[in-house]
Design a protein that fits this description.
alpha/beta; 5-stranded parallel beta sheet; globular; 17 helices; Rossmann fold; binds iron/sulfur cluster; 3 domains
Length: 355
């Protein structure tokens, strides 16, 4: 949680941001942003709004205006319980939708209409209906990084933090064909972690026939995170060469050959927990760039390798300027069809019951 009070004055805001972001954001940039951050905090208090900041927000925003920070699941749980009138989700559009699914009475704002996601856009409700027709009787697990229309076609949701638990539960419940959507790498990495066979949904029929019908099989789709798919084994080798004692943590949306080489794979929350709780000489994070900067600012006693250059363009659309405009003009509001919302709620509730 942000420790800057919503009622902090301009000087207090400037002091907090400079102290927190020392060595991460140049003073000149903080000077350019501090008045906007202060105005946002003043307005959110006046309007009874809560601001949720995803771990991938840029550091000046992340460390000045959110009331809560975290991954999409943590923030959605907060969104579900908030008593604020307005939820401003500083994250991408599917996150705003999830907040609206969980707390439909609230006004939910996402500061940019352009903040999409290659995973959410990589599958549609029609695609899922076609998969269900191709694999009759299969259970469908959908990553939360999808739009409400896709969730509405699914049996369960999962996050990168609980994909293993959700898959294990489905196997335990006796499901033999498990369609895991839409991230090809998250599906394969999770199946590998649990020792389950994995096939792409377009794989040759012979490959499907080779897995006995009474054995569980994870069936994937071809969408990928346009940020995490770019990490390579060479990136891992480069870090190891320069920082031999670094612990390398990678997000499970990275390619399987990368995951096999790192020390730990985990969600953004797992990375935060690791950097906070486990001692290591160096930490290297194979995930979206801002996350490393945000952790370096939050835990100045930890040494983070700042070698990453991969920024998510969708997360980058969310700026302090647009967040101020969102509050002033009450834009851009998330609206969902009520039938879709209710259908999308069910797989989320089933996921939450597995926690
Ligand atoms: S980092 Fe990847 S999964 Fe996250 S919003 Fe960007 S494209 Fe989507």
């Amino acid at each position: 949680m942000n420790t800057l009070s919503a009622q902090a004055g301009l000087d207090e805001t400037r002091k907090f941001m400079k102290e927190r972001l020392q060595g991460i954001v140049p003073d000149i940039e903080i000077e350019a942003k501090v008045e906007i951050a202060h105005e946002i905090n003043r307005l959110k208090h006046e309007m009874n709004a809560v601001i949720l900041g995803h771990n991938y927000m840029e550091p000046a925003l992340y460390h000045s205006i959110p009331d809560y920070t975290g991954d999409s699941l943590q923030l959605s749980s907060i969104a579900a319980k908030t008593t604020a009138d307005i939820i401003v989700f500083c994250g991408v559009w599917f996150m705003g939708e999830t907040a609206k699914i969980l707390n439909p009475q609230k006004t939910v704002l996402v500061p940019s209409e352009k903040a999409g996601c290659s995973l959410a856009e990589g599958i549609s409700a029609d695609d899922i209906r076609a998969l269900k027709a191709k694999f009759p009787g299969a259970v469908v697990v959908t990553y939360v990084n999808t739009y409400a229309t896709s969730k509405a076609e699914s049996d369960y949701c999962c996050t990168s933090g609980n994909a293993d638990k959700v898959l294990s539960k489905l196997v335990e419940d006796g499901h033999k064909r498990i369609i895991f959507l839409p991230d090809a790498y998250l599906a394969e990495n999770t199946a590998t972690q649990l020792g389950l066979p994995f096939l792409d949904s377009e794989a040759d029929q012979k490959a499907f026939d080779a897995v006995p019908a009474d054995q569980p099989l994870v069936i994937g789709w071809h969408a990928k995170c346009e940020v995490h798919e770019l990490f390579t084994t060479e990136d891992v080798a480069n870090i190891r060469k320069q920082y031999q004692d670094a612990v390398i943590l990678a997000h499970p949306e990275c390619p399987p050959e990368v995951i096999q080489l790192v020390d730990k794979s985990g969600s953004t929350k797992a990375m935060v927990d690791y950097v906070r709780d486990k001692d290591a000489p160096w930490y290297a994070l194979l995930t979206e760039c801002s996350m490393g900067d945000n952790l370096a600012a939050e835990f100045p006693h930890r040494r983070l390798v700042r070698a990453c250059t991969l920024r998510c363009k969708h997360m980058n659309y969310i700026t302090l300027e647009d967040t101020l405009a969102a509050l002033k003009q009450c834009q851009y509001q998330v609206h969902l069809d009520e039938t879709i919302r209710q259908q999308a709620l069910l797989p989320i509730q089933r996921m939450l019951a597995i926690q």
